[in-house]
Write a structure and sequence with these properties.
Elements lengths: L5 E6 L2 E6 L10 H16 L5 E6 L4 E3 L8 H5 L3 H4 L14 E5 L2 E3 L1 H8 L2 E5 L3 E3 L13 H9 L1 H10 L2 E3 H6 L5 E3 L4 H14 L2 H14 L4 H11 L7 H11 L13
Helix pairs in contact: 4-5, 5-6, 9-10
């Protein structure tokens, strides 16, 4: 039996989801999209998981987009209209952190999947671009909505309109990725970050995440009100009380630090 097109692995309280089509630069067909959807739904349901890492198999590509040789299978998949052709782009109720670990090509629909993540760690060999521009294939997995929110309108339109292929340092400069690490090290670094996130009280981090995502398109006054509403019960989280007691005892865990430039 052939290996699944999407692999999942529990690493402590982290759920690693790997697009597993390295022979096709991890492009997504209908079957792959369905498996991505199932993996994200599993993560959402499992209270024993705090962080999801989305990555691609091998070193050549995170995901090069839709499988253009079998593109009809994306829209034919049951549930594609609700969850998005690539499987997960229209899922907005994850409620827990998601990290993208990018090695190699991250293009077209693959770039849209990376933008679905909360933030991205990229290897030095990563490349990003709306390469589907060359074939007249549109962005229908959130690219026109998430990319401007991440990098600003002008940078987004530059990528969307020109189809330019940019390297990891350019992506870091415009805020598309948050860390750049040596080639082959992006999944390892994402796991390191995920382990740190799991040590934090989860109520506060999840509610902060929710307030930021829900408030990003609101006027400031409405966003502040949303923040207050989201955190109405956060202070009653027992984990917060435990951490405050540890602080009072003088405990000072080392903060996460980005890699040296």
């Amino acid at each position: 039996m052939s290996e699944s097109k999407v692999l999942t692995e529990r690493r402590g309280r982290t759920f690693v989801v790997t697009i597993n089509r390295p022979e096709a630069r991890n492009c997504v067909d209908g079957e792959t999209a369905g498996l991505l959807f199932e993996a994200v739904e599993e993560y959402k349901r499992d209270d024993g998981l705090d962080v999801l890492i989305l990555t691609g198999a091998g070193k050549d590509a995170f995901c090069s987009g839709a499988d253009l040789k079998n593109i009809g299978s994306l829209s034919a998949r049951a549930g594609a209209r609700n969850s998005g052709p690539m499987g997960i782009s229209r899922i907005t109720d994850v409620q827990k952190p998601v990290i993208g670990a990018v090695e190699g090509y991250c293009t077209a629909g693959g770039l849209e999947l990376a933008c679905w993540c909360d933030f991205r760690v990229a290897s030095a060999n990563a490349q990003f671009g709306v390469l589907n521009r060359r074939w007249g294939v549109p962005l229908v997995d959130g690219g026109t909505q998430r990319l401007p929110r991440i990098v600003g309108l002008a940078n987004a339109l530059y990528l969307i309109e020109t189809g330019a292929l940019i390297d990891a340092s350019h992506a870091l400069r415009i805020g598309l990725v948050q860390e750049v690490v040596p080639a082959g090290k992006a999944p390892e670094r994402a796991l390191e970050i995920a382990r740190v996130l799991s040590t934090y009280p989860q109520g506060a981090i999840r509610n902060d995440r929710r307030a930021a995502l829900e408030g990003v398109s609101l006027p400031l006054a409405e966003g502040l009100a949303r923040e207050a509403a989201v955190h109405r019960d956060t202070a009653r989280d027992p984990a917060m009380a435990d951490w405050l007691a540890r602080f009072a005892r003088g405990e000072r865990p080392e903060p996460l630090r980005p890699p040296d430039p």
